[in-house]
Amino acid sequence: MTPAALQLDDRGRLRHLLTTEGLPAALLTEILDTAAQFVPVAGAPVKKVPLLRGRTVLNLFFEASTRTRTTFELAAKRLSADVLNIDAQTSSTSKGETLFDMQRTLEAMQVDMFVIRHGSSGAAHFFARHAAPGVSILNAGDGRHAHPTQALLDMYTLRLHRPDFSGLRVAIVGDLLHSRVARSDIHALRTLGCRDIRVIAPRTLMPAGIEELGVTPFTDMDRGLDGVDVVMLLRLQRERMRGTLLASPGEFHRAYGLTEERLRALGPDALIMHPGPINRGVELSGDIAYAPQSLILQQVEHGIAIRMAVMAMIIGRGETE
Ligand code: CP
Fold first, then answer.
1. Which of 88, 117, 185, 215 has the largest count of CB atoms under 10 Å?
2. For atom 4 of ligand 1, which residue has the closest CA?
3. Residues 71/115, Cβ–Cβ less than 8 Å
4. Which of 62, 68, 232, 239 to probe ligand 1 with, by most ligand atoms within 8 A of CB?
5. What average pLDDT does the segment 68-94 reach?
6. 240 or 111: whose pLDDT is higher?
């Protein structure tokens, strides 16, 4: 079964969240609308609601993370779940235990939801295929494949500033080859009605056949940026690069970095996004991350509400209905 089919139950409701690919627009919109209801929790005197009281959420991260791991943990705690964090480096997988056996072991502890980040594309799908009844899997990023909650928080942030996606011109810039964020954003943007999505990268970082996702590829940054409303920058994922894909980070910055000059050419209304972590002086210059047009910190903040929404819709359902 494909990840897209596996993640919905027989009533079309979320059972797992593995990818934005194939999720209907109505479901994406329901997640964004549910997140909007959770945003005020962050400003309440007691930052907690009881939706997941008595439930257990387990964060299982096999790759480094600052934003995703902490906002998943905060989201689960603000929903009153019990939260376990497993550092995969010191887990028994380092002694040879397989993922399958690890999953069975943790399920025996009556965990309700696994949040998993893994370097291999398909790892979350593997967990979902083998999940015990009643156990749900949330993909926190698998290899180059998908990072669905990142895309959802990106859509939430963008929708606050540009509610109608139909006339929006969006450029996604940088390391498309290794980016699970780009793939998840493209699927979500298209499903929500965006028709002008450009992807900008050097040939070495442009996946073959990417236009099949409904995007227009550019290798010239300035041509690709012409007239866009939103620039989504991507991190250069040097940890995934094999061989020489780039002359140097400095050369990449000259050809594909968002500089002050390019920011001026975009105009004051253009919006800047980046999933983080940012590489200053590579994807963007100086303090552009904190320029008035930058939504980067809003993206981080909205990650909590989006993750609360997804968890509440999957395992808090009984209490919300
Ligand atoms: N955007 C993102 O996934 O960041 P982290 O790697 O810090 O979680």
1. 185
2. 67
3. no
4. 68
5. 93
6. 111
Tokens of 261: 């000059």
pTM above 0.90, yes or no: yes
* Residue 107 burial (C-beta neighbours within 10 Å; 0-12, 13-18, 19+): middle
Read off the CATH number of the domain in which 314 is found.
3.40.50.1370
* Residue with CA nearest ligand 1 atom 3: 68
On whether both 158 and 255 belong to a single domain, the answer is yes
- The pLDDT of residue 193 is 98
What DSSP designation does 192 have?
T
Statement to judge: residues 158 and 200 lie in one domain: yes
- Cα gap 32→25, rounded to integer Å: 11
Residue 211 in tokens: 């236009």
- Report d(CA 176, CA 182) in Å as an integer: 7
Are β-strands 196-200 and 216-218 bridged in parallel, bridged antiparallel, or unpaired? Answer: parallel
275 lines ligand 1 (CB under 6 A): yes
| Closest ligand 1 atom to Cα of 141 | 3
For the segment 185-213, the average pLDDT, to the nearest whole number, is 97
Q: Does 320 contact ligand 1 (Cβ within 6 A)?
A: no
184: Cβ below 6 Å to ligand 1?
A: no
User: Same structural domain for residues 30 and 129?
Assistant: yes
- Pairing state between β 82-87 and 169-173: unpaired
Calculate what percentage of the chain has a pLDDT beyond 70.
98
Distance CA 255, CA 202 (A): 9
Q: How many domains does the chain have?
A: 2
Q: Residue 22's CB: how many other CB atoms inside 10 A?
A: 16
- Contact indicator for 277, 66 with CB cutoff of 8 Å: yes
Q: Are residues 156 and 290 in the same domain?
A: yes
Q: Does 127 lie in the same domain as 22?
A: yes
Is the pLDDT assigned to residue 167 strictly greater than 70?
Answer: yes
Domain that holds residue 128: 3-146+303-320
